[in-house]
Amino acid sequence: MAWSRLGDVTAEQFRGVAAISREFGAEVRITNRQNFILRGLSEDQLIELYPRLLAIGMAEPGAELSRDVVACPGADTCNLAVTQSRGLASAIGEALEAAGLAEVEGVRTNISGCTNSCGQHHIADIGFFGAERRAHGRSAPGYQMLLGGYVGQEQIEFAKTALRVPAKAAPEATVRVVRRFSEERELGEQFQQWLERSGGAKGVAVWLKDLDVFPTPEENEDFYVDFGETGPYEKELGESECAV
Ligand code: SF4
């Protein structure tokens, strides 16, 4: 599997993947985690494949690890977005790297910039959707955090609401959950099994409650500015351009 950070793929990378597909006789599929699967390869081909992926910047381990955060386009390009979901995805990836937790297996984070769930937050282990918050008389970017969603072999479980957090506290909330999961999980235990024996989404929410605090704008203006923005947060909705 070849990882593409935030699902961003350049024309050069697409050409590189197409050339690999032709030359190695591999079938290429795009996954719902915004990565590429190369199918039909033999083990012998992997030694040659690695430098080819390295040359186009797609050899870093990431697919299906905790750094593999998925986000919808959010306020970068979507008229319905309440928040900068891609900016949060980037910040979560960086926070996990800094905490040494970017390569934890078995935990998937998905983010949507509004309730519509193009980022599939409702079927993620850790999900977020953007929501406007009000604090100290100001608008601020925030997120509803959800936990425990998954698509199983025979059933789908929608994630349960945990708590709302300021956008700028969402990376810390994710780091705490990933750290606790990686420290407490038993051999072969899935995220939802760990969550269940840890008090479920509401139980974990109690433990994260101290993060749902807005400092005053004088104390920390950053809480009133969304990721990737330079000015104060303002909710601006336009006409939908997609199927939503
Ligand atoms: S409509 Fe879809 S793409 Fe746009 S912000 Fe909402 S979830 Fe994201």
TrEMBL record:
Report the protein name in the record. Answer: Unannotated protein
High-level lineage: unclassified sequences, metagenomes, ecological metagenomes
GO MF term set = 4 iron, 4 sulfur cluster binding; heme binding; metal ion binding; oxidoreductase activity
Classification via InterPro entries = NIR_SIR_4Fe-4S (IPR051329), NiRdtase/SiRdtase_haem-b_fer (IPR005117), Nit/Sulf_reduc_fer-like_dom_sf (IPR036136), NO2/SO3_Rdtase_4Fe4S_dom (IPR006067), NO2/SO3_Rdtase_4Fe4S_sf (IPR045854), NO2/SO3_Rdtase_FeS/sirohaem_BS (IPR006066)
* Sequence ranges assigned to domain Nitrite/Sulfite reductase ferredoxin-like in this UniProt record: 6-55
Q: Does the keyword Lipid metabolism apply?
A: no
Q: Which residues form a coiled coil?
A: none
Cite the SUPFAM superfamilies for this sequence.
Nitrite and sulphite reductase 4Fe-4S domain-like (SSF56014), Nitrite/Sulfite reductase N-terminal domain-like (SSF55124)
Give every Nitrite/sulphite reductase 4Fe-4S domain span: 66-202
Q: What UniProt keywords are attached to this protein's entry?
A: 4Fe-4S, Heme, Iron, Iron-sulfur, Metal-binding, Oxidoreductase
